[in-house]
Amino acid sequence: MMASSDVDIRGEGSLFSDHNPSEMDALCPSPPGPSRPQRHYERIGERTGTSFCQTLIHLLKGNIGTGLLGLPLAVKNAGLVLGPVSLLCMGFIAVHCMQLLVKCSHHLSVKVNRPSLTYGEAVQHGMENVSWLRRHSQWGKQTVNLFLIITQLGFCCVYFVFLSDNIKQVVEAANATTFSCHMNYTNQTQVLVPSFDSRLYMLCFLPFIILLVFTPNLKYLAPLSLLANLVMTASLVLIYFYSLMNIPYPITLPKVGKAKDYPLFFGTAIFAFEGIGVVLPLENKMQRPQSFIPVLYLGMGIVTFLYISLGTIGYLCFGEHIDGSITLNLPNCWTYQAVKLLYCFGIFITFALQFYVPAEILIPPVVARVSPRWEMAVNLLLRSFLVIITCALAILIPELDLVISLVGSVSSSFLALIFPPLLQIVAFHNEDLPPLVTVKNIVISLIGLVGFLTGTYVAIEQIVTRNGQKHEGTFSSYMVQ
After folding, report:
1. Cβ atoms 70, 324 nearer than 8 A
2. Which residues pair with 333 in a beta bridge?
3. b or e along 428-440 (b: 16 or more beta carbons within 10 Å of the residue's beta carbon)?
4. Over the stretch 28-60, which tens digit does the pLDDT of each residue have?
5. If phi over 0 gives left and psi between -120 and 50 gives alpha, with beta otherwise, what is residue 451?
């Protein structure tokens, strides 16, 4: 998501403003807003919003990223049968929660006489329906904003690790790169000349990413963003082709994975499905918002199919050797080295888009407190500081699969699974919500909570274990020398 100088930020005296920015705020400016509440999906100025196809493209873009490339490892952690079944179930639950969020937003916007609401505002006004929560409603909005910040900065950390791992692999295999793309059933990219640690690659990327987020208005990056989408799509097609053509037979992979690895599957899967932050901005910008639910079903149906198919095919192809991103398993021939470089270009551009939300929530309240002559300097300094923080966190945890699982477990589970069902309970508190609906919502929230607790614990445990093994390996090498 992106930084835009013309985004309207209200409530600048607070750390978490009332306005939740999104990627669409910069690439797709809002049409002239309605002057009355959106009753029955009505909009004034229907000719200026985004179309069905444009909304579908944005929805796909908001849900397809590095999480997709990590799903083959997630299927390995769950098992060849349990993994795809779990992804299908999680897809149904995620779409249902997105629909709940839209439904609650419509209901509450009419109630408070507002044309539209952000995620945080919906939670705030929902809590105001319950007498004993009313005095704490502001905390609800700020909590959602906090998790949005954690999630988006977590995405940025994942991007640092993804870029460093893939570029490192391309550099190390450069002298061994050939025109032959035959399978050898190991971690596919063969290292000929070992280079320096992946964390040093992150430091090399740091100044370029800082310059990228200095872009004053990310509409300027729209052509590059379109190009990034095209090359990432082409890369995915080639990854599918290679994986399908190289599935070994007979298939002897375990149908069900180890129980202790399932929380890692949950974290990676919910990280991939966490596109709920773009749902309300997309619906609010549609030319015909009554068409949004069909867009949601179609878009998330495509996303779920891609997740299940690539996760399963990737695991079938590479088996126990599957890495944190399927790109790291591709052979070191020119075609698939180019795939890695093209995908890295797409992720590099996408970094600015993901950075937009935390930057526009955190920076304007601080800039508002300085004199006009220092506004630009403080703005750029804070942007640099936030990027450095994400780089530092990535350096501390340079394990792609564990970073994805940790981010998914910690923040995505709250935004995608826990908050929406609870929001429906409080939003319709005085509307005689059927008991079965309440029970269903509580069960979904409990699933998210259990996933958060177990996924976070297992991811942190694995991070500590791997770091310990690395330190032991380094110490042993030093003693041998």
Report:
1. yes
2. 178
3. bbeeeeeeeeeee
4. 554 444 444 444 444 433 446 778 888 888 888
5. alpha
How far is Cα of residue 295 from the mean position of the Cα atoms in its chain?
Answer: 19
Best CA proximity match to 379, nearest among 221, 217, 214: 214
Give dist(CA 310, CA 326) in Å, integer: 9
CA–CA distance, 162 with 467 (Å, rounded to integer): 18
Per-position DSSP letters for 7-52, written without gaps between them: -----TTSSS-S----HHHHHSPPPSPPSS--GGG--SSTTSSB-H
Q: Cβ neighbours of residue 28 under 8 Å, at least 6 residues apart?
A: 50, 54, 58, 285
Is the model's pLDDT at 267 over the cut of 70? yes
Rounded alpha-carbon distances, angstroms, from residue 362 to 2, 88, 368: 13, 36, 11
User: Residue 10: how many CB atoms within 10 A of its CB?
Assistant: 10
Rounded distance between C-alpha atoms, residue 68 and residue 271, angstroms? 9
Give the whole-angstrom CA distance, residue 411 versus residue 212.
25
Say how far apart CA 476 and CA 3 lie, in whole Å. 47
Alpha helices in 246-333 (DSSP H): 262-273, 279-284, 292-318
Instruction: Give 407-426 as a DSSP string.
Output: HIIIIIHIIIIIHHHHHHHH
Rounded-to-integer distance, Cα 251 and Cα 34, Å? 57
Global pTM value: 0.83
Cβ atoms 346, 218 nearer than 8 A: no
